[in-house]
Amino acid sequence: MLSTTTFPSSPAPCYQPGYPSSSSLRNLDPLLPHSSTPLAPVRKFASSTPDITPLDRSTSSPTSTARTASYSVQKQNITVDPSHFKKIRLLGKGDVGSVYLVQNEETKQLYALKVLSKKEMVKRNKIKRVKVEQAILSMAHHPFIVPLHHSFQNKDYLFFCLEYCVGGEFFRALQQRPGKVLKEHEARFYAAEVVAALEYLHLHGLIYRDLKPENILLHQSGHLMLSDFDLSVQSPTIGNPTIVRSAFPSLFSHLPLLDTKICSNVRTNSFVGTQEYLAPEVIQGNGHSSTVDWWTLGILLYEMIYGFTPFNGANRNDTFDRIMTQKLDFPHFGSNPYFQGPEISHQGKSIMRKLLDKNENKRLGARAGASQVKQHAFFKPINFALLRHMRPPIMPAQKAKPIDAVHFAHVKESVSFDLHGSLTGDMDMDDDDNGGDSHDSDREDLVDPFADFGSVTLIRPKH
Ligand code: ADE
């Protein structure tokens, strides 16, 4: 899903208690309640330049593998272009492009085609970010990460042809639940799938940095898939996982742990993420590491269970104040008329407390990464090895035709995008929230900044 990205003016703003927000930032304040916004609310921040060099996994051989053979994605130089697809409908819209449901004319296979305007990316200084996203998507091969099938470009646009997740946005699925909440065991299931996906990313030296319900899609199988990697960062050197022994052997942590934290050994300083999901160390601006992903998992778990995030304030600075200083509170379900089950378990509260430790060095996951998180008693009922074979709590209606997907916003296409020709008009890019470095797009025309955006076709096994 594309969500509108806002750019605070650089340098990256740091947390200043009580500091009044500037009017330009106040204008971007994304505090609309979820249900009242037709599209995903604007909750996202990105500093103007990514602190990452796009991974160079390109290859010139006709069929080759990305990274090493053991977790490979096969690439092919099959030429795919927009004319291979028939547009069915608009699925979502963001600040630099849109996502369309399309059908391959020949195979009749449905895909989600993310179409990004080069002009807008240059204007919003997102050139590197899109290359990072392409590199990650073409490397990743994991059941809970949205598969990329092809990427290609034409004169004006970049295209990501992604697996179509018929269940739509997890965010919308949540909105449609009574009370907008999940039962604890349901939240545990999705949290476990997120842990598995984050473990994979961390093992590859990546920090995701933008976990939130808007960036999670529901596959036809009901399993979730992480999408949107434009805020991710990769460690310049990927360490090998090591074995660590538990400092305090207990019932659940007597086994040695695989330390995956060491793989993404990067400390980065950019101010990115989504307001209500930002970790204290990101707000502080003194650098952050992969433990930010465990903080965001804590916020996600809380939002799935309680229907709102724990530190949301009246405005941006209020939210930041709360993230930095407010103790984590757990509401009583008696106040939610939709909740009829038992109170949240001791283990549920404990994992949220530990993931939402404001001290990144003490946070759950800080010592050994995902394996430490998996060992928390909250996940005792989960068999991580069999996760993808478990029945998910929300199943997209199987009788529905995939074309009539369920959890999608009704997005109106104001100007039509013609896959077979050029645009019939200009794409609707009317929000003007570019606080980042503005580029002179005429200058950019001289050198094509997307010349190295690789056209790839990936051979994917069927899910
Ligand atoms: N929105 C963004 N990406 C999508 C996908 N892969 N499937 C369905 N909707 C999407």
Walk me through the structure.
The chain is an alpha+beta fold and 463 residues long. The protein has 2 domains: 75-166 and 397-413 and 452-457, Phosphorylase Kinase, domain 1 (2-Layer Sandwich), CATH 3.30.200.20; 169-395, Transferase(Phosphotransferase), domain 1 (Orthogonal Bundle), CATH 1.10.510.10. The protein contains 11 helices and 18 strands. It has helices at residues 23-27, 118-123, 127-139, 170-175, 184-203, 280-284, 291-306, 316-325, 346-355, 370-374, 441-446; strands spanning 5-6, 44-45, 63-65, 74-76, 85-93, 97-104, 110-117, 148-153, 157-163, 168-169, 206-207, 216-218, 224-226, 233-234, 242-244, 257-259, 273-274, 456-459. The strands form 5 sheets. The chain has an 8-stranded antiparallel beta sheet. Strands 1-2-17 form a 3-stranded mixed beta sheet, with no helix packed on it. The protein has a 3-stranded antiparallel beta sheet with strand order 10-12-13. α7 runs antiparallel to α9. The radius of gyration is 21 Å and the shape is globular. It starts with a strand and ends with a strand. The relative contact order is 0.19. Residues 1-41, 51-72 and 422-445 have low confidence and may be disordered. Bound molecules: adenine (ADE). Adenine (ADE) is lined by residues 1, 91-92, 99, 112, 146, 162-165, 168, 217, 227.
